[in-house]
């Protein structure tokens, strides 16, 4: 599915460059629907896979917006597809699923008659560690408790209705748990603040920026220019202004010259680095000297 998704996103970008905008829109919508399907996989990588595929779909979306190539019906359909995603919900569901799956495996080990202790690995095989044989069998119950608490803490850091994520997690209890690499990376989340699609904070904020960008372009097509404030998009083009999830506040909108704009999330330091020489802000922006778009005849 990931390879098929890559084909559609590449073809969408290629079609935009050659003026085949209708076909490009169809490919973009297909790529977004494939990303939706990815979330249905029960494995531990499902939500990360969904996020990576969604971020990849943003490339042709961004290109079409930068060139003002999408028409209003296309933008309506694209924004409707984006509104179907809620990465914070999917992430909390994945935490539940991953915690319960490992607890079921670990709590059976003390009563097992197997000569060798092994646990499933993310690649479909099994992992064996000689240290596991020497530790008390009751230690596996303690691992279950630790993992359950870790899952509780992760979910507690996420306010899904308020679209907010806190970063005050303690990761010491993760180090000694017998988790496979993919599960460790999922729980670690690059300390929640990395600029990577694997971090749900970055992915959800990027999704929110993409939704706003579609609404802004729909506004421009109707009114001839972008609004001065995002509040002008509500309630016709957006029901509400989506958040910068690390702050729990609406994403910052900065109109710029030549009828353009930037969407700014403040990043893990919560500081607007607009005037600073070094910045960790998460931006949705367009080049000021973008080439003229190729239009279909």
Feature tags:
297 residues, 9 strands, two-stranded antiparallel sheet, mainly alpha, 2 domains
Global outline: elongated
Tell me the Rg in angstroms. 22 Å
Q: Overall pLDDT, averaged?
A: 89
Structural class: mainly alpha
What does this protein structure show overall?
The chain is mostly helical and 297 residues long. The chain has two domains: 2-85 and 200-285, no CATH class; 89-192, no CATH class. The protein is 48% helix and 10% strand. It has helices at residues 2-17, 21-38, 46-66, 72-82, 87-108, 130-134, 139-156, 181-188, 200-223, and strands spanning 118-120, 126-128, 158-159, 164-165, 243-244, 249-250, 252-256, 260-265, 282-285. The strands form four sheets. It has a three-stranded antiparallel sheet, with helices on one face. Strand 5 (243-244) and strand 6 (249-250) form a beta hairpin. Helix 1 (2-17) packs antiparallel against helix 2, helix 1 runs parallel beside helix 3 and helix 5 (87-108) runs antiparallel to helix 7. The protein is elongated.
């Amino acid at each position: 599915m990931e390879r098929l998704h890559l084909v559609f996103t590449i073809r969408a970008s290629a079609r935009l460059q050659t003026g085949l905008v209708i076909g490009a829109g169809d490919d973009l919508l297909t790529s977004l629907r494939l990303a939706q399907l990815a979330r249905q996989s029960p494995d531990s990588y499902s939500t990360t896979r969904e996020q990576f595929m969604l971020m990849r779909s943003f490339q042709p979306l961004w290109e079409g917006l930068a060139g003002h190539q999408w028409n209003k019906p296309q933008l309506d359909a694209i924004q409707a597809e984006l509104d179907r995603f809620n990465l914070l919900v999917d992430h909390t569901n994945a935490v539940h699923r991953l915690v319960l799956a490992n607890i079921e495996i670990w709590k059976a080990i003390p009563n097992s008659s197997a000569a060798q202790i092994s646990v499933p690995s993310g690649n479909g095989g099994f992992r064996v560690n000689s240290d596991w044989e020497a530790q008390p069998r009751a230690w596996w119950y303690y691992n279950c408790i630790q993992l359950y608490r870790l899952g509780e803490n992760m979910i507690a850091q996420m306010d899904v209705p308020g679209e907010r994520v806190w970063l005050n997690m303690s990761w010491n209890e993760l180090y000694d748990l017998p988790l496979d690499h993919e599960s460790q990376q999922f729980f670690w989340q690059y300390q929640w603040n990395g600029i990577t699609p694997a971090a749900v904070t970055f992915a959800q904020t990027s999704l929110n920026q993409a939704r706003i960008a579609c609404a802004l372009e729909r506004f421009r097509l109707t009114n001839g220019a972008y609004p001065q404030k995002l509040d002008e998009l509500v309630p016709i083009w957006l029901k509400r202004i989506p958040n910068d999830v690390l702050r729990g506040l609406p994403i910052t909108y900065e109109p710029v010259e030549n009828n353009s704009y930037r969407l700014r999330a403040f990043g893990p330091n919560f500081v607007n680095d607009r005037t600073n020489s070094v910045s960790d802000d998460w931006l949705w922006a367009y080049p000021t000297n973008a080439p003229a778009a190729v239009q279909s005849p």
